[in-house]
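Predict fold of ELM2 domain-containing protein; 187 aa.
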Amino acid sequence: MVLAERTAEGGVRNGKRSRGPSPNGHAGAGIVSTSGTAGGATDSSSDDENSRKNGNTSKTTKTKSEYEEKIRVGRDYQAVCPELIAPAERKPEQLNDRALLVWSPTKEIPDNKLEEYITVAKEKYGYNGEQALGMLFWHKHDLERAVLDLANFTPFPDEWSAEDRVLFEQAFQFHGKSFHRIRQMVR
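Predicted 3D structure, encoded as tokens:
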């Protein structure tokens, strides 16, 4: 960062380079000095200019951080954006679905019937609660068809044993979201 000071005549004089952090939070970015040109125009201060004034004419190689902080302008650095599709021309049926609804509750099924269905699906056919509700939703909340169809599909087995679940819950309470530490405890 370069500090500039105002002269008694109201002009701006180049100051000395500050070694502290930039007030806008960018380390080393925006190293700009103000010159006494009309209109307060700015031109960038460079170490090459300072080295020439001191008699050092050798070129210095730029470090990686100096290269990364350079503002890039020109055709090579422009993003290529696709043409805008007007809302009237968009076709929702052509969009990829990013989610699949597997359960939506309904008031048509009493809670006790729903609990009974889930119990049968779990105990007799090995479904978990989510899989059982998904089957019921697939059959549009028709309990009879869903119960008949439970035997036709093999549910995806749950890979976690009861012991694994307990270990995970204990590790999660102890370590929070540090999953690499949780993995060490569960193994």
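Helices lie at 47-53, 64-68, 111-125, 129-138, 143-150, 162-175, 179-186.
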